[in-house]
User: Fold this.
Amino acid sequence: MDEEMLLHSSELEVNGEVFSIKIFCSAAGRFFAKTCLGEDDFIITDGPSLPETLKRHEDLLPLAIGTRELTQSYFGGPRRPRGRRP
Assistant:
């Protein structure tokens, strides 16, 4: 089993919502950022270093959130409750 070590934690506001960003490093030296958008719904971004992983994740998170909102709207699914994300 691959162990993960939390290296960084921050928040990013997107369209009035605050999302938590956590960056981990695996025992194999792999960096990845993770944000929870809802129950069993995570955005994960890989990168070669902590700063590059954070930048990629901050750049992609608004697109991922917008895509999910469009998909939910198109299919008529339940909307995510707005607010602070863990």
